[in-house]
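Sample A.
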Amino acid sequence: MMEFTAEMIAGFLGGDVVGDKNAAVHTVSSIEAGKAGSLTYLTNPKYEPWLYTTQASIVLVDRSFEPSQPVAATLVKVDNAAACVVKLLEMYNAAKPRRKGISPRASISEKATVGEECYVGDFAVIEEGARIGKGCQIYPQVYVGAGVTVGEGTTLYPGVKIYEGCSVGADCILHAGAVIGADGFGFMPNAEGGFDKIPQLGNVIIEDHVEIGANTCIDRAKTDSTIIRRGVKLDNLIQIGHNVEIGENTVSSAQTGIAGTSKVGHNCFLAGQVGIADHVTIGNRVKVGSKSGIDKNVPDGEIRLGYPALPGMQYHRSSAVFKNLPELARRVNELEKQLNELQK
């Protein structure tokens, strides 16, 4: 396990050491759970009391911070602690050893292509015509269907399933249980009162630098493609319907559902449990609050909140009225009584 000293960390971040420059750490923790050998950070003033009791060996703080009590840990002072935390986490992640080699218990078709320096774990299945790029990490029990392409440096965590004909770009991360390319939810009512299945003949295209959370499902298109553009980040437990298109660098939190043939623009933010109806177009740079329901098109740059979703200020005004409804109802009832008495 790699160790980093306070002096090394300060050099990497352009910071200054206050305390023991040889203090060493091998892991990262929160400030309240810090233990000897761990690096932690103080980026929110409300956590300052923990600084004086933490057992962590090194604490990253803003350069302007001055403690009000003695601190046992070594401090590394930097210009922007929050930004430096991200750099350090990236450094620690890069230092972790990458898995190597192809398991003899993996099933790889002779007609599949696996690039150099790939890892393929136990019981992974790679079907004929699949093409796996250089340096991919394919964990145990992953299924890669016929004709699937996976770009260089992509990681597929355990239990990822990619159906036939789909495409995943380079440097993507698909977390455990993600399902790419299952049939879109297409059924036609029939004369007997049941439903006939509509064949789903398209695929899913995921571009480069996309991250998809655990147990998220992205359905294949009825025709053409469901498309997830470059840089999209999807949380766990998200449902993307058939023929949906999500624009570059859009982010969505958990339990969002997007119905078929809707389009979401680039650089949007969808909070948790957002629902988007079918055939809706969301513009670019749109922000949608948690549990909001979108059933109409949204222009570029707007904010939507609530169900049914309203423009930001309209929602806040409506909310201010809604919470006062019981009192307003009581006053209306009193006024009605007074009016009835006057009429008598």
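Sample B.
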Amino acid sequence: MQFTAKQISEFIDGTIEGDENVQVGELSKIENGKKGSLCFLSNPKYENYLYLTNASVVIVRKDFSPSQPVSSTMIRVADPYSAFSVLLEKYNEVMNQNNSQVGIEQPSFIHPSAKIGKNVFIGAFSYVSENAQIGDGSKISAQVFIGADSIIGKKCCIHPGVKIYNRSVLGNNVIIHSNTVIGSDGFGFAPQADRTYSKIAQIGNVVIEDDVEIGANTAVDRATMGSTFIRKGVKLDNLIQIAHNVDLGEHSAVAAQTGISGSTKVGENALIGGQVGIAGHLTLAKGTQIGAQAGINFNTTEENKQWHGSPAQPLRDWMRASVIFKQLPNVEKRIASLESKIKELNLIIEQNSTISK
């Protein structure tokens, strides 16, 4: 499907600079741009590609000032990245219009007590347990397990291999990618006198609210009692561990390989980098931002504050400490040199003291 630069600018409320009638039929990265493609420039380090690309249309920031002639038609917007994401979503919708599957593939198992909404797709080798509910327009891919009494909302997309344990609750427009597990046991074991462990029954569930997206190979444990909550609009990357009774605030985003320990409450709009470790029974303030590989073992009370390092510290303190870390080898040499000189001075002092006696 072809669109003109003028049509695209209307989608994203942009201003055209160049040929408004030039047509594009695909999206591309700016370094791979070719005739008939649309790309965007957001990061200044890619600016050089703007002068080399063969892309027909490039989305740029409204205040961008090129240092060389640009052969592509430019569309100026407030935020190129956000504008391009809007176009990606529209492109995805168009591409999927002809792939709107409905019905139940065989072989699959649907318990007679399960309630299946309108325009639902259930892929082959999937298992829908007793009293489970699947809302209108939801797509359940192949080899998905949905446990007893679970509720899947409307227009959800559950990718192949996802396992949803009993009594899990998913809101509307939830996306869960392949091999993720929802509702597995929380990590609860009571130490015994003989140094063995007794398993603590995990009788709660997981509640995932509307518009949540969860990446592949992620685990969200059910609560010991009550519920583990993934609040509205949360975005989880691949390979994340969310422990029992965690309450992850609305519109928070968590990058890969992060672990959030049991009963921790994360405020809304938190941003958590990759490989972050968060201890249990903590409360993190609204808008907390945590850099990659940081370790959090304390409550945060100040909203929208950045934390880095392990153990974590405020961003400015961590930056100062990082500078010192780099200087440590030279500092060690200087200390060794000073110690050597001190020994020499002590010898001289001792010799002079002996002579004076």
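B remarks: The chain is about 20% helix and 30% strand. The mean pLDDT is 93.
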